[in-house]
Fold these 3 entries.
Entry 1:
Amino acid sequence: MTEQGLDLSGSNTDLGTERVLILACGALAREILALIRGNNWHHLDLHCLPAILHNHPDRITDAVKDAVAQRRDQYTRIFVAYADCGTGGQLKSACDDMGVEMIKGPHCYSFYEGNDAFAAQGEVTCFYLTDFLARQFDAFVWKPLGLDRHPQLLDMYFGNYTTLVYQSQIDDPALVELARGHADRMGLAFEHRKTGYGDLAIALQEQAEKP
């Protein structure tokens, strides 16, 4: 899922209902699959783009456009499970042009917390981790920033941060301790918030129940 993405778009066997494709960031694959399976949304298929696009937001819009073009004839509806994710509004404009919906919010940290609640807090000195990023911290944060080779850069990157906020989607004490360790490495205070799936669950339920 990190480099290659995930394609379960051919897994739908419920031919009696309209088919809906969830086109998502690979960093959300585990959570979306849990929601689909837990709610028996058999008419929802999932296709994930590589999660590493998280580190290259300038590539997200074109990747989504290509994926929609390749699959739209196979589905009644496509829902884009990407927030803005650093595209500066370009992804929203592209989705509007293509006539497909996308999840609301500036990034996954916001919709996991709940967009309204996240905006109300106005936090500017917090660094956020999800379950995915707690697991993939080295691959997505430490190594891309060169901190494995140049640890002296840590203060340059994170000197203005005060707290690492771990937003957990599932209850896993091992992940909490893993995230706490990342906070220690960064020299940040640690806060754990049990957000669950937040607005992601609401958005997928709306897609599943649409007539």
Note: The two ends are 31 Å apart (CA to CA).
Entry 2:
Amino acid sequence: MKIDRHGKAKVLSTEEIQRLFTSGLLTVRDKTLCAVMLYTACRVKECVTLKVTDVYDRKGRVRTELIIRKGNTKGKLATRTIPVLDDLRRYLSMYKPKQTLDGYLFPGRWGRGHIHEDSAAAILREACKRVDIVGASSHSCRRTALTLMSNAGIPLRVIQEISGHRNLEQLQKYLEVEESQVRGAIAALSMLTPVDEASIGKYNYPDVSSTADTGTLESNTI
């Protein structure tokens, strides 16, 4: 868990996500901003640099797939297209982005450029503070999404296609191992066959004490 901006960002539970979106985030813009990060597993920078045309078609309808441009990705590796879930579509349909010359989905102050990454991070931190969620950061949405997909049994190679990680090793660092999974892993060891104490008596071990008394043990070792 992240404390004072140190450590890994918290993976949010279903209950915490519910609190965050019902009471923590106050505006449609803020809810949409965090919904994009949560339901696409994108990075903060990738979210704030989205253009309106990456999300809506010319008639203002939400696209079936959201486009994350190569130039805005970490390392500028490749353009990604992420299917838009109905949960995300609901927020995008409510959100009415302002028309600006730059055409960003989340415009900056006075319509210039896009909202800064730090500002987006601050929005999430303040929202978490309102609903007593400790240890969360702007990376929490991304870590939560990737961990949920992994726990659902989605192959890592497929998750990598969504997350945009350079390799699987980098992706695995994002994934949270839950305590219940550790307990489940240990419980799997119950499949091992234990020694049956009742069967120990079936073996005829020599009675050392009795043979010692008769001298048999001593004579057999000479």
Note: The longest helix spans residues 117-130.
Entry 3:
Amino acid sequence: MRKLWRLIRRTGRIAQDAPPAPPRPATAPALHGSAQIRHVDAGSCGGCEIEIGAAFGPVYDAERYGARLVASPRHADVLMVTGVVTRNMRRPLQRTYEAVPGPKWVIAVGDCARNCGELAGGHGVVGAVSDVVPVDLDVPGCPPRPEAVVEAVRKLTGR
């Protein structure tokens, strides 16, 4: 055990610095560097949820940039929507958007949320997220990498 402690002391702290902050949208300063995010699955396959979980997990740690997932839209500043909007999820998505107090932002995560992706033209598909609620940021990919999700969060928080 002492050998390990000596090694730790000798090596010191090793951590990578955060990359430079990406440019913020003009409306984002109202967040004051922190964002409370409510995730909504409008009809996805589950791939984007896994990547969002990874983005907020210990490796990518999106919380260090001022983002936090919350359970209620009443506590949120940002909606993070994944998947195409299905017929059964159109009204719940609209109601969730209406429940978020202003100012509010919407992030469409994944190709399905952006432009219906592989599910375009399906019989239960209403359309992309932008067809139902206004979208401020898009995160491309099927599924998007956790780095892309963290970058979108950083754009909003400015950190």
Note: The first helix runs from residue 2 to 11.
